[in-house]
Amino acid sequence: MPVRLIDREPVVPPEALVEGMVPPPGFAGARFDTYVPAPDQPSQAAAVATLEAFATTLQPPPRKRFGRTPSREGKPGVYLDGGFGVGKTHLLASLWHAAPAPRAFCTFVELTHLVGALGFAKTVTALSDHRLLAIDEFELDDPGDTVLVSTLLGRLVDAGVRLACTSNTLPGSLGEGRFATGDFLREIQSLSDHVTSIRVDGEDYRHRGLPAPPVPLERDQLEERAQAEGASYDGFEALLEHLARLHPSRYGALLDGLSLICLDRVVPVTDQSAALRLVVLIDRLYDRDLPVATSGIPLDQLFPSELLEGGYRKKYLRALSRVTSLARA
């Protein structure tokens, strides 16, 4: 019988949350020398050189025998500015691999979930001894989260933690341009003097529109697919109810050991809270490159227009792009 996600209630110890802050499996082999800069985009090669130089500042500074520890030269943070598909996550993961332990890699959302699970003070304590905190897909669509993370990063910089960030841009947002560095620095104004912006130009290949999803399976086809080893099988609405009972920091553990996710009778998600929880689950599926098979509506109808036109549009479009990619797999 296939596994049911709704039967799983993983318990993730606080220390495991921090230990699990590593690049997704798809970037386990990312290194500076495996990043291939485009010959017609000199900023890509320049970004590699700048980050390699920044990596040399991540070693603990030598301590004086007497007096205070000397400070490092240069700014303690870098921000990679560029569109989709230019290799920012590869470069961020490469920097993480070049950093000495302890080090942490997470998305912006995962960082907010860590604070939610541990509390602000314990999160500061847990990360203050790290040499590097790498944050992928920095988001500005929730002012509360932006202020929270900005305050957290300020505390960590004061503790000597070095920072590296990328931004998230829209799949399918042709004409809107890249995430603006000015917006980023303005929103984290308490840190703006500590962050060096690094341009990474290139063809923004995901700005070609969302791909068409595959035709949903019939229910008997989905049940047959779910007989595969490592498959899970859940009713879609029952899974949404289960997600509401779990802290989002546990969604990754919910997927441990699985190789295929089967969702029966997918329907449009009209409740924003449920939709945002589903976005987090899709991100965890995408991190693990877990294929998805569905019955019900086509996946491009997953979020209704009132959500796609609202304040969290970026999240929903990214989720649609990702879940469609997983379904096509």
Give me some keywords for this one.
8 strands, 5-stranded parallel beta sheet, Rossmann fold, 14% strand, single chain, 3-stranded parallel beta sheet, globular, 329 residues, alpha/beta, Transcription Regulator spoIIAA
Overall description:
There is one protein chain. The protein is an alpha/beta fold. Helix content is 39%, strand content 14%. A 5-stranded parallel beta sheet has the order 2-3-4-1-5, with helices on both faces. A 3-stranded parallel beta sheet has the order 6-7-8. Strand 7 (260-266), helix 11 and strand 8 form a beta-alpha-beta unit. Helix 4 crosses helix 5 and helix 11 (272-287) packs across helix 13 (313-328). The longest helix has 16 residues, at 143-158. It starts with 13 loop residues before the first helix and ends with a helix.
